[in-house]
Structures are given as structure tokens and as C-alpha cells.
Design brief:
By secondary structure, the chain is of the alpha/beta class. Helices cover 25% and strands 23% of the residues. Strands 1, 2, 3, 4, 5, 6, 7, 8, 9 and 10 form a ten-stranded mixed sheet that branches. The chain binds zinc ion (ZN). Zinc ion binds next to α3.
């Protein structure tokens, strides 16, 4: 089963499918948003509106744990997330698509793990699924590399912050990519993101940032994004060429004393 996490602008992917069923699942972290389950290219797909329907929750209030747990509970093995981002690179323009290969996490107040009563240190040398990234890159005119910087929000960044992120190697900046990618990895799911560049980041942009500008670009690029998602779903093979499903191997500290240690 394939999961798509997106904002309301990506809802059209559901309309391409057949036999749509709506479902809310319960999790230890609260109920999921209403998900749409449908068939597309002979595959079962779940669409999850990250902010719930109607963009009700701002990025710092999204229940990332419930969202990812819900997808896992539904049987999702592969997740494609969509994110709107600001570009910190003059050569990457509003309207471009970026598939990040790494991230810098500048969130501050979000719970970022499922493992509070077990000591689990997952490897994130390659945080995004290589196989899903290759499929997304081959499905459209996208920039196949970039470092995603996640800020806490909901405010935009200062000019000094953007200069710092650039010096640290950041390519694009957004507010929703973390801890989503980490939580998916902790549950051994494949996860990749496709980012729509909606604006230049502060100080790269010649003018004040407005949310109208963000929505206008996302709206204009919506059809292209839906096509990339649809093509990618078609191309996803049933066999895995990645190691995502083995993420927990060697990640957990053994908390229990062996009998000979007692
Ligand atoms: Zn994978």
C-alpha cells in the first residue's frame, strides 16, 4: 500500500482513483485525519491531508505521530510526502520541484520519536528512501538533490537565519518535513518528499513574503505535481531495492540483562 501525505492542493490525486473509501483510524496519539483510500494504476493508495482537511492545523501543531502511526496501521509501506518550501538558492526558482536527499532539523518543540521506553538510535545517513527518490526523479522535471531545512515556524525565517542555513548547506526551507521523515523511518517505512518551491526565502526574495504568493505558486503547479505523483505510483515496484524495512536492525540498545549478567 502506498501513502501520499499532502495539503489540500494535492487532493486531486484522489479524484484520479477509483472506489474511494474514507476512513479515520485511532492511534495511541489520537485519531488520524480523514484519509481517502482508493485504487490507482492497480495499486491501493491512501491519501492523508497532513493539516487535516481545510488546512486547519498550522505546521507546528500537526500531529505527526498520529499521522505516521495511522499510515502504518493502514498497511502503508511506502510514503510520498509533498511539501511547500522556500528556495535559498537563486538557481532554484518558484515553481521548481526538489526531491531532497538530506535535511537539517531546526525544529524545537516537536516530539520526534515513537520510542520513549526503548532506547532506539536509527541510522539516518540517508534519511530519504533511495528507491522512492529515484522514482520521483525519473517521473518529472525535478531537481534531484537538495538539503531540506525544517524550521519550527509558524513565522517565516529572518534574513540572518537564511544566511546561516545557506552557509550550513541548506537548499530549501520549510516547516513540515520534520519529524515526519524520522517517524516513518522509525516504523521502517520507505519515505521520500517532493517539494514545490513556492517562493524565494527571506533576503533571497526581493519583496516581503506573503502566504498569498505561496498559495498562488502551489496552485499553479498543482497539475504538474499530481502528474508526477500519479506517474510515480505507477512506477513503484512490488520488490524493494532499499534497506528502509530493516531500519531497526542494530538500532536498539538492549535494556535487559542477560541471565549470566545477573
Ligand atoms: Zn525504501
Amino acid at each position: 500500500m502506498i501513502g501520499i501525505i499532502g495539503g489540500t492542493g494535492v487532493y486531486e490525486i484522489v479524484e484520479l482513483g477509483e472506489e474511494i473509501v474514507y476512513k479515520v483510524v485511532e492511534t495511541p496519539y489520537g485519531p488520524s485525519p480523514e484519509m481517502s483510500i482508493f485504487q490507482l494504476h492497480g495499486k491501493e493508495v491512501v491519501f492523508m491531508p497532513r493539516h487535516t482537511l481545510g488546512h486547519a492545523k498550522p505546521p507546528h501543531m500537526v500531529n505527526y505521530l498520529s499521522n505516521i502511526w495511522s499510515l502504518k496501521k493502514m498497511g502503508v509501506e511506502k510514503v510520498i510526502a509533498t511539501n511547500a518550501v522556500g528556495s535559498m538558492d537563486e538557481s532554484i526558482k518558484p515553481g521548481d520541484f526538489v526531491v531532497p536527499h538530506d535535511f537539517l532539523d531546526f525544529t524545537r518543540m516537536r516530539k520526534g520519536t515513537f520510542y520513549d521506553d526503548r532506547t532506539v538510535h536509527i541510522d539516518v545517513t540517508e534519511p530519504y528512501c533511495s528507491q522512492l527518490r529515484d522514482i520521483l526523479i525519473s517521473s518529472g522535471n525535478v531537481i534531484g538533490n537538495g538539503v531540506y531545512v525544517c524550521t519550527e515556524g509558524p513565522r517565516f525565517e529572518t534574513a540572518a537565519e537564511i544566511q546561516m542555513f545557506r552557509q550550513l548547506g541548506g537548499t530549501v526551507v520549510g516547516m513540515t518535513g520534520l519529524p515526519e521523515v524520522i517517524l516513518a523511518r522509525e516504523l521502517e517505512m520507505c519515505y521520500s518528499s517532493i517539494c514545490t518551491v513556492s517562493n524565494y526565502a527571506a533576503s533571497i526574495s526581493p519583496s516581503k513574503l506573503t502566504i498569498d504568493e505561496v498559495f498562488e505558486v502551489v496552485e499553479n503547479k498543482r497539475k504538474d505535481l499530481i502528474r508526477i505523483l500519479s506517474d510515480s505510483i505507477k512506477k513503484i515496484p512490488s520488490d524493494n531495492l532499499c534497506e528502509c524495512e530493516n531500519t531497526l536492525d542494530g538500532a536498539e540498545v538492549d535494556n535487559f540483562l542477560e541471565p549470566e549478567d545477573l
